[in-house]
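Researcher: I'm preparing a figure for a lab meeting and need a structural model of a single chain. I don't have an experimental structure, so a prediction will have to do for now. The sequence is pasted below. Please return the structure as tokens so I can convert it later.
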Amino acid sequence: MKTNQEHLAKLTNIEKAEFTLGHLLGNGGYLTPGQAQKFIRLIIKKAVLMSQFTVFGMKEFKYRLNTIRFGDRVLKPGTPGQALPSADRSRPAITQKELDAKLFKCEVLVDDEVFEDNIEQAGLRNTIMQLLGEAIARDTEYVTINGDTASADPLLATMDGMLKQVVTNVKDAAGARLTRALLKDALKLLPHEYKGDHKAMRFLTSTNAALDYSEELGDANAADILARHVENELGPKYKSIPVVAVPEFPENLGGSSNYTECVLCQPNNFHVGFHRKIQVRVTEDIQSGSVIIVGRLRFDAKFANEEATSKIENLLAT
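Model: Understood. Here is the structure written out token by token.
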């Protein structure tokens, strides 16, 4: 499977362009191809999971994600000189998922006095754009994980995210903390054909749930281990599969209880498509004496093969 860098290289011919307000003002609000690529790279770099997902640019706002596999046995007993009966012939299973990029916006208002009085002066504009990109990266990961079209939160209701999409192989923890026994159950839930490549698999869960598992292993400095894990991809494992603490995983599920979930998957099975026409417009409100930055982007995210995932729900996270 292609890496994120290979996908990004195909977005366009890279143009050297600084990601600054000055350039944005000069091209009508849309980022140039080079700037759009830089923007997507920033999102990948600043989010915990985005670098492990398959991230790519979509020329149009819709994209068909095709998968093909042989799920059943293809070998049959043969007879010399005779073709197999039609009932013994194999056919690959072909599935299609459609990514339909959803629209998201952000708006930032900065008073003129802020630019005049701060120590960075004009350089503050670049700082604001850098911080805005990091905040968008954080919120993008939040939506791709927690999105739920049935949510009362308008942001989350825009699309179904990773947690909502895993429905086939699900284990109910019934309020228990994350343990080796539950991780074993999650691994057992996977169809046999998907259990082989442990190096590519991850248990993704909340910070508190990963901390519970680390302490069960007898790690006296479990909190320090998790902190190093977030920065350097170090941390506890089960059967050589890393248990990844993801800050944007929820810890307030289950109504009155503080529950979370744990997803077992190959992260590159989760595809995030960005519509390439990322837009940032800058305008001035003369009457109020302020600069307004309006950001606009479209993306969608789906598992290419949901059957290759499993989930533990109703995990205690306090």
